[in-house]
Write a structure and sequence with these properties.
The complex is a heterodimer of chains A (about 280) and B (about 400). Chain A has about 280 residues and is of the alpha/beta class. Chain A has a single domain, classed as Rossmann fold. Chain A is about 25% helix and about 25% strand. Chain A contains seven helices and twelve strands. Chain A has a seven-stranded mixed beta sheet. Chain A is globular, with a radius of gyration of 18 Å. The two termini of chain A are about 25 Å apart. Chain B is an alpha+beta fold and about 400 residues long. Chain B has two domains: about 160 residues, no CATH class; about 150 residues, no CATH class. In chain B, about 50% of the residues lie in helices and about 15% in strands. Chain B is built from 13 helices and eleven strands. The chains are: A alpha/beta (about 280), B alpha+beta (about 400). The interface between A and B is large, with 56 and 42 residues.
């Protein structure tokens, strides 16, 4: 894929990714040559109908599955030839996940969930509990640090999941349907948070979603259909015209401008992403 | 709040710069929480381990108790070499030597002391009627190396009295007597209990009755130069093997055994040739197997319950080793808890059987062995759970 963003730092690059499951009559080919880049400081949405290959692509981009063909480079590290442990090493160093079902550890408090991610990532910190609270403060949940997931609302759980994904400062955050289990208000809050997260010039965020309400928050929208990227667009923002890069692009020419993050925060998030997790905005 | 967060960030940055940063360890906490999250599962796991620990402790304790009983006479005598009748199976399986062995031994270079022991079965007629078999132990109770121990009433010196014997109070009911001074008959000769010992029990359940060497010979119709065993003590600078060779030359048709050989032969005979020890070992092994199966089943079930969490860990980048560590820590925590409770119950069982005919012995070595076995059992039990998580597909954490 021709690089149309020469001034942006590429944090993840998928080159001609093909994935084949099974063989012979049972062969399934969910990805048929996907080229994709995630740039630093951007929130990219990956959209497509069911069965289009979104989840398979997310699994490959997250180094959970290996592609049958093609190459994946994450934060400058090629995953070619890596075994399961090699891929796990790339994941823990460079990739953070936000899951649709939150996937928090029910037996651990919000802060312990964050500390667990720090442990998995082997990220050295001075005072782990303080560090975890700082991460939760960044998502506006410092006051819920000692709460177990069962005592948190859906929106709060997803914000804890985002704090966990940020722990250890990975370069790439991959979110799988982050608003699917949330009501509209919490969905907006989570997208606003991901938008803030993506403003870090050393981080790229990709969210796989069906939810069209998330589109206003995106810096870039990639559509996948039948295992290939069918379109890529940049919704109009701050009065700039949208930049469509594909003749199959079907996005509305005037995507709704996202509400200002500070006006969409749920109670408890006064100034999102402060302190250690504060995102430095692009100059 | 913003200022506070900024201060925190600055503090963390400063401490990081000073090199105080460390990696937080959460695997133990996750294992602990997983273990205690499902109380019912924990109770089942602990029940399995405790059952196993108690069963193995009692079986091994009985084994050690049996060994102690079988070797009691040998362990309480200080002999270097034993002259025994050819083909003797154990101390409690006596017959008579040909005779004069003591003098042959005393004339052998390198031997400092030799003493005769007379051991034999006899009939004990109870004062209120009825008879029972007893094992007579006749020895030089004044100067010899084997004499009654754990004297509770009376004294060894009183064995000098005519027809005086020492009996153990744990056999009083079997002997039909109640107290010191009671009388009975051995092989139709009246004897009087002049000393009472405590806890000298035989593996064969036949009561030991101690008396003087002369009295034993008299009651067992043995000649004055005859003995069941001749116990030999070496001179300080003597070589055991050369003395044994000399004795073998002098005393044909007898066996010359070291103290350890005679002990092992006695223990092997009663515990393995009779099958009693094999039964105890089989019981202990069964306890271990039951423990492994129960712990494996509950750990596997617990792992299945937390499979989604393990898949999440894997998706977050945890190595297979990290996840195995969580499961192993769970297993080790279960082992510690189960061992602790199991040992308390085992000690209670031992305490409850104290003073009965059941001799269960717990030694520091056995306690340590049990701990190692429990730990090993739980780690082996964790293997099935580890196999289960090894096959986790981390892609399962994504919506389909």
């Amino acid at each position: 894929m021709k690089d149309r963003e020469p001034n942006r730092k590429t944090l993840l690059e998928a080159k001609n990714i093909v994935k084949v499951f099974g063989s012979g009559a049972y062969e399934v080919r969910p990805l048929k040559g996907v080229n994709l880049r995630l740039y630093a400081g951007e929130l990219t949405l990956l959209m497509g109908p069911s069965g289009s290959g979104k989840t398979t692509l997310l699994s490959i981009l997250g180094c959970i599955l290996s592609p049958t063909e093609g190459e994946l480079v994450v934060a400058g590290n090629s995953t070619a030839g890596l075994d399961a442990e090699g891929l796990a090493k790339i994941r823990r160093r460079h990739v953070g996940f936000v899951f649709q079902g939150y996937n928090l550890f029910p037996t651990m408090t919000a802060s312990e969930n964050v500390m667990l991610a720090l442990d998995v990532r082997a990220a050295p910190v001075v005072d782990p509990p303080k560090h975890a609270v700082a991460a939760l403060t960044a998502v506006g949940l410092a006051h819920r640090a000692e709460a177990f997931p069962s005592k948190l609302s859906g929106g709060e759980k997803q914000r804890v999941a985002i704090a966990r994904a940020l722990a250890g400062r990975p370069s790439v955050i991959l979110a799988d349907e982050p608003t699917a289990a949330l009501d509209a208000e919490n969905g907006r809050a989570v997208m606003a948070l991901l938008q803030e997260v993506a403003k870090d010039p050393n981080r790229a965020v990709l969210a796989v979603t069906h939810d069209h309400r998330t589109m206003p928050y995106a810096d870039r929208i990639i559509r996948i259909e039948d295992g290939v990227i069918s379109s890529e667009s940049r919704p109009k923002k701050d009065g700039m015209p949208p930049a469509a890069h594909d003749e199959h692009h079907h996005e509305p020419q005037s995507a709704p401008t996202p509400p200002h993050p500070e006006t969409t925060q749920p109670a408890g998030i006064e100034k999102p992403l402060r302190g250690r997790y504060r995102i430095r905005r692009n100059a | 709040m913003q200022a506070q967060a900024a201060d925190t960030g600055a503090l963390l940055a400063a401490e990081n710069a000073q090199g105080k940063a460390k990696i937080v360890r959460m695997a133990g906490k996750l294992a602990y929480r997983n273990l205690f999250h499902d109380r019912l599962s924990l109770i089942v796991t602990l029940t399995g381990i405790v059952f196993s620990v108690v069963l193995v402790a009692v079986q091994c304790g009985l084994y050690i108790g049996s060994e102690t009983m079988i070797a009691a006479m040998l362990d309480n005598s200080k002999g270097d070499l034993w002259v025994v009748p050819f083909g003797t199976k154990s101390f409690d399986d006596p017959s008579f030597l040909i005779g004069h062995e003591k003098y042959a031994a005393l004339s052998t270079p390198g031997i400092a002391k030799a003493e005769d022991l007379v051991v034999g079965f006899a009939g004990w007629r109870k004062p209120k009627g009825g008879t029972t078999a007893v094992l007579i132990i006749g020895s030089d109770y004044e100067h010899g190396s084997l004499k009654p121990w754990n004297i509770k009433q009376g004294s060894i010196a009183e064995l000098a009295e005519p027809f005086a014997v020492a009996a153990d109070d744990t056999y009083f009911a079997d002997l039909g007597i109640d107290k010191l001074g009671d009388t009975a008959e051995i092989n139709n000769t009246r004897v009087r209990v002049s000393a009472v010992t405590h806890g000298i029990r035989s593996f064969t359940t036949l009561p030991y009755v101690f008396m003087s060497l002369q009295r034993a010979r008299q009651l067992l119709d043995a000649a004055n130069t005859q003995a069941s065993y001749t116990l030999v003590r070496l001179a300080p600078d003597a070589n055991l093997e050369s003395v044994r060779a000399d004795l073998n030359d002098r005393l044909k048709d007898r066996e010359i055994l070291t103290q350890r050989e005679f002990r092992n032969r006695s223990v092997d005979y009663w515990l393995f040739q009779t099958g009693a020890g094999s039964a105890l070992i089989a019981g202990a092994a069964l306890g271990m197997i039951v423990g492994v199966v129960i712990v494996a089943q509950t750990l596997y079930s617990s792992t299945k319950d937390h499979l989604n969490e393990f898949a999440t860990l894997r998706a977050l980048g945890a190595s297979a080793g990290y996840i195995h560590k969580v499961i192993l820590i769970q297993a080790i925590m279960s082992a510690f808890l189960g061992y602790g409770i199991g040992m308390i119950l085992s000690l209670l069982v031992i305490w409850a059987t104290k003073g009965t005919t059941l001799l269960i012995i717990m030694t520091p070595g056995l306690a340590l062995l049990l701990f190692a076995l429990t730990l090993g059992m739980c780690i082996i039990a964790a293997i099935s759970a580890i196999f289960k998580v090894t096959r986790i597909d981390p892609a399962g954490v994504f919506s389909r």
